[in-house]
Amino acid sequence: MSKKGKLLIVDDNEELLFALHLFLQSHFNSIDTIKNPNSLLSKIRETDYDVILLDMNFKAGINSGNEGLYWLTQILEQDKNACVVLITAYGDIELAVRAMQNGAIDFIQKSWDENHILSTLLKAYKLRCSKLEIKTLKTKQKQLNKEINKNSSFVKGKSDAMLQVFKTVEKVSVTDANILITGENGTGKEVIAREIHLQSNRKDQVFIHVDLGAISESLFESELFGSKKGAFTDAKEDRMGRFELASGGTLFLDEIGNVPLHLQTKLLTAIQSKEIIPVGGNVPVKIDVRIVSATNCNLFEMVNDGLFREDLLYRLNTILIELPSLRNRIEDIEELSSFYLNKFADQYGKGKMSLQKTAINKLTKHSWPGNIRELQHVVEKSVILGDSEKLSADDVLIGEETAKKEIMPETLNLVENERFLIEKAIRFTGGNMSLAAKELGINRSTLYDKIKKYDL
Questions:
Q1: CA angle at residue 430 from 456 to 420, to 5 degrees?
Q2: 54 forms bridges with which residues in the sheet?
Q3: From CA 203, how far away is CA 176, in angstroms rounded?
Q4: CB 412 within 8 A of CB 419
């Protein structure tokens, strides 16, 4: 039999100390014994013990167990992962319950039952190993989160609209309130969601991003709630869903407006009950997640059109944060452009680069239907193709691809022209379906029908 970890025995009975040491030495790598508990704390500061076997009474004639409970508290204050087994000559069930409530792993009597003593200590050792493994995993997770988040730098901007956004972010981040972020495509909804997470009390836990628009209806439940082995053809093992993965942290539900109506009920149930049932399972799993969701849709209009559940909207919409389009925060374009210029110049080894005033003027005059994402793309392309350290207006490549895309169809075919106008409206509004529908002079549900018809 292989020997286990380090054991410390604390008891005022020298004969018992000797007998336990003799019996257990073939099962543990090292065993230390002390008679006086006053040296206990210094002992555990010197050595990282896996299991501590602690007597509950040290003074003659006193059998209350209070001494043992006192030293138990002291040990756990020093090492919250300590595995302490309490031992006494008096089989007091009430005292045993108190000991367990105060953090003891188990409770044994001094009556000599070798099998019970050994099995109890080995179980305590296994628990200690599990606790240390969990501690290590949490430390790694914390470090990984720091590595992931250290590159999440961004530009706040100086526009009134963005200053108000970050003022709201600062207020709501420290709460666990559900937050809905709205705005056109490319306005930085994920960036804001991550910032909320980083300023929250959950910042050391995971941030799980789910693009609901990219999940097919058939996989919706298994992706979000997980699945059990054998639940469907390819379910060869248990699989954890996004809700369970995010438990303790933040779950970012992106493109929430794209969830079909019949699946919204399942989402509402999970958020409302704070538990999920994996596909193929029947046992609820408790979850603890902070929900941040985002959409470029007008969910209130969708509710009126019967496309979105009102009760789900109010579950998600405790706090609403609306992000302005880039064309409504022109004063931030120079700072944003310089930020991406430095980022891509460094990424592509271009050295120090800057923007001339003519380049900045060109950037501020553009309408930016694709918002910050489009700006980022333009700056990246300009850095890659630019030959000068100082980029001029001619070096800033805007609109070439858009111009090609917007050539009218050379046909009078109604279907071809309708498809073209719908694509143009969606592109012009940065993917905001409500605005696109208004530009086209149709209602939102009709626009969705036509998008489906033309497979856009």
A1: 40
A2: 10, 86
A3: 12
A4: no
Structure-token pair, residue 56: 């509950």
Quote the CA–CA distance of 97 and 55 in Å, as a whole number: 16
Separation between Cα atoms, residue 323 and residue 296, nearest integer Å: 10
Residue 167 has pLDDT above 80, yes or no: yes
Is residue 50 pLDDT above 70, yes or no?
A: yes
CA dihedral 257, 258, 260, 266 (to 10 degrees): -70
pLDDT level of residue 251 (50, 70, 90 thresholds): very high
CATH of the domain at 304: 3.40.50.300
Q: Strands 275-276, 285-286: parallel, antiparallel or unpaired by DSSP?
A: antiparallel
Q: Identify whether residues 116 and 27 lie together within a single domain.
A: yes
Q: Which helix (H) or strand (E) holds 231?
A: none
Query: What is the DSSP annotation of 239-308?
Result: B--HHHHTTTSEEEEETGGGS-HHHHHHHHHHHHHTEE--BT--S-EE---EEEEEESS-HHHHHHTTSS
| Phi-psi domain of 302 (left: phi exceeds 0; alpha: psi -120 through 50; beta: other) | alpha
Structure tokens at 326: 């880039």
The confidence score (pLDDT) of residue 60 equals 55
- For the residues 318-341, what does the mean pLDDT come to? 94
Q: Is the residue at 424 inside a domain? A: yes
* Rounded Cα–Cα distance for residues 426 and 405 (Å): 13
Per DSSP, the chain holds a count of helices (H) and strands (E) of: 19, 14
Structure confidence at residue 405 as a pLDDT band (50, 70, 90): very low
Structure tokens at 202: 């959950």
CB 192 within 8 A of CB 173: no
Domains identified in the chain, total number: 4
Give the β-pairing of 319-322 and 179-182: parallel
- For 435, the domain range is 404-453
Residue 288, beta-bridge partner list: none
Q: Which of 139-153, 261-275, 350-364 has the least mean pLDDT?
A: 139-153
Q: Are residues 39 and 66 in the same domain?
A: yes
Task: Give the span between the Cα atoms of 287 and 417, in whole angstroms.
Answer: 49
Check whether 421 has a pLDDT greater than 60.
yes
Of 109, 130, 138, the closest CA to residue 51 belongs to: 130
pTM: 0.65
Q: What is the mean pLDDT of residues 231-247?
A: 82
